[in-house]
Amino acid sequence: xxxxxxxxxxxxxxxxxxxxxxxxxAGHDEILVHTGQHYDYGMSQVFFDELNISEPDINLExxxxxxGWQTAxxxxxxxxxxxxxxxxxxxxxxxxxSTLAGALAAVxxxxxxxxxxxxxxxxxxxxxxxxxxxxxDHCSDLLFCPTQTAVDNLAKEAITxxxxxxxxxxxxxxxxxxxxxxxxxxxxxxxxLKAKEYLLATLHRPYNTDVPAxxxxxxxxxxxxxxxxxFSVHPRTRQKIASLDNPLESxxxxxxxxxxxxxxxxxxxxxxxxxxxVLTDSGGMQKEAYFFGVPCITLRPETEWVETVEAGWNVVVxxxxxxxxxxxxxxxxxxxxxxxxxxxxxxxxLIARAL
Length: 355
Hints:
Strands 3-2-1-4-5-6-7 form a seven-stranded parallel beta sheet, with helices on both faces. The protein has a six-stranded parallel beta sheet with strand order 10-9-8-11-12-13, with helices on both faces. It has helices spanning 10-25, 45-50, 67-85, 97-108, 128-139, 148-156, 169-184, 187-191, 206-209, 212-224, 235-242, 248-253, 265-274, 283-292, 306-310, 321-330, 347-354, and strands at 2-7, 29-34, 58-59, 89-93, 113-116, 142-145, 163-165, 199-203, 229-233, 257-260, 277-280, 296-298, 314-316.
């Protein structure tokens, strides 16, 4: 069986690793197409190096641009790949422009389409990701859901055929790589950090980075928090911080906030596992914090991962400066341990078997 897998962004490389391994073990032929949506080393190549993912068979090198332009360039190029390869399945991940382009290319050519991480909903149509995931789900023939909530979301939209609850492939990846990360990463020593004595922050959603008032409010909260913060900064976020009409960038650099370029997956796993608290607008980091039993403050007005909130490990605060500072000061792990919400660590094998 031949499968064309389409990836393009940092989280998708992680989600694709366990599936690619399972497909290989099952004797299937996977052609990995990298759209080039994320293209510098820290956001792309490092993940292929660390996760032992085969180098992409095809790199479209689309790069960044306006949403419409970027999606269109991907669609044109992916269509050419599919016509040439004639796969049995097209496999897409998550909710990026790469996901939507792969889905549209497949459905226009009447090729079977499978969506990993189907059924997520933020119910916020201002998010480009929400449109991408909804459209992809309604195009797909097989829908691989990470949680029961995702299955229920699809049922509310009358999608019940081809739906499978398989668990989360990011949980597969954490189980596979966390021990390797502990033995190989030296990030804590390099930064002079002690376990549970720092907070870990990331920020990349347009809701925060493209709205100066929101970005200012979050950065001001970081300055006000009286604990060391490790802030791993997405290249686009760094540009947005530099463009602010105030001295916040220099204040951050002169404060207790450690500003880092994006780190590799293994280093990030170690930073997440040993943080006292995570502050993020990343869906993936909300889950990884939950996997490690680390409380999380979500810097968005909503989350797709409502299960983590209901379990008491995650709190949603948006960009409210005072609320961020308050929760950073008093958020503690709940008394009960994490429930097994995201499967048993065999999502990749279940997906390979279903295909």
